[in-house]
Write a structure and sequence with these properties.
- The structure is a homodimer of 190-residue chains.
- Chain A is built from ten helices and no strands.
- Chain A is mainly α and 190 residues long.
- The longest helix of chain A is centred in the first third of the chain and has 23 residues, at 12-34.
- The interface between A and B is large, with 40 and 40 residues.
- The structure holds a DNA duplex (30 and 30 nucleotides).
Chain lengths: 190, 190
DNA sequence: CAAAAAAGCAACTTGAAGTTGCTTTAGGGT
DNA sequence: ACCCTAAAGCAACTTCAAGTTGCTTTTTTG
């Protein structure tokens, strides 16, 4: 017969990590507004008092959870062939968008109800603009004409995927990504 | 000295209209989750009891408010010149997206937290696909090649505007719309 | 092993949502 | 003009989740 009346406590970083992870999952499942701090605590196996002590408001908890995972823009290999590189980046972006964390980020930031989260939204935009380097290099190689609106092209690709996933609620697979990239690249080349 | 202790009541359709209108405004301002039925009632100058009697849940109130305004896809004139027609449609779509009602629709439907609202989301998609006729006619005229992926093109245009407005939080004016339409049209024409 | 820090716990406070029973008002029919 | 009924108002109440507090227990560390 074990003597422990309670399960062993998780403290410090262990407790913080558990809570932030549950927060991300919950963000993806129910979104920001419906996220309940007491429920997060329960799911993390932690007393709600401990959570409130560390993060006085829901906004701060969510901000830290999102910040812990943003700012690591998905890396991709640059082969030097523009179309292949864009597809590689797109695959990474889609994988991110489909992951629990990605769901959390998009659900939390799309409507951006909470002013607390605005700064993070721009972080997401920055990530979206990650492969800009690919395009500028393609211009330098002469693969694209100098006047091409690269920023517009990226926004358009990202937007098409967003539309597909979050408005039409249909899956965005590699075939779809390829169609989008080809459409935009063809447009970019006149 | 006026004898009226209370302002005159609004009944029936007048009351319903006032409440639905306030509901739309509030949807645009605070979104679905933060929308408060008692607050809507107060803003509409109506007792909350009356609101609850007519719409037992917030979901039903919002659904009726949105339904009262969706299903009227913004019309546009079709001149027969594809680019001009797409731009005309886009102007209408942007005007809609910028209006209080449009804000309401997007904020309520983008994340689509509430299962009650799912059916309306597809309504929005239908509206998005409104100008499909323009494209099919352009194909028939020979202005576009038969195999062109028209649905993809429309999704991409809509997505680019969505990305601009709701992720980047930057204004989408006529110049931007024109760039997007030209990019996609150029891509569609190979 | 003692002291301090961190987490647990239960009881409490608060505030918004929604409910109820009843009263008052609007407006059509006679 | 009056009455009768349906619709709206009103205030008091219930409920429930969020967040707070004071204190106890556990873990860490020096």
């Amino acid at each position: 017969m074990t003597k422990r009346k309670r399960p062993p406590q998780r403290r410090g970083e262990a407790m913080v990590g558990a809570v932030l992870q549950v927060t991300l999952v919950q963000l993806g499942v129910v979104g920001f507004e419906r996220l309940s701090v007491p429920e997060v605590a329960a799911l993390a196996g932690v007393n709600k008092t401990s959570v409130y002590r560390r993060w006085p408001t829901k906004g701060e908890l969510v901000r830290e959870a999102l910040a812990s995972v943003l700012g690591e823009p998905p890396d991709f290999v640059a082969t030097g062939e523009l179309r292949a590189d864009l597809l590689a980046w797109g695959r990474g972006a889609l994988a991110f968008a489909g992951s629990p964390v990605g769901q959390a980020v998009f659900r939390a930031l799309l409507s951006a109800d909470d002013p607390d989260l605005r700064p993070l939204a721009s972080e997401l935009t920055r990530t979206t603009k990650g492969p800009m380097g690919l395009l500028t290099r393609a211009v330098r190689r002469g693969e694209l004409r100098p006047g091409a609106n690269l920023e517009l092209a990226l926004s358009t690709i990202a937007g098409a995927l967003l539309q597909r996933l979050h408005v039409e609620h249909r899956p965005a697979d590699l075939a779809y990504l390829t169609q989008v990239v080809d459409l935009v690249l063809d447009g970019l080349r006149r």
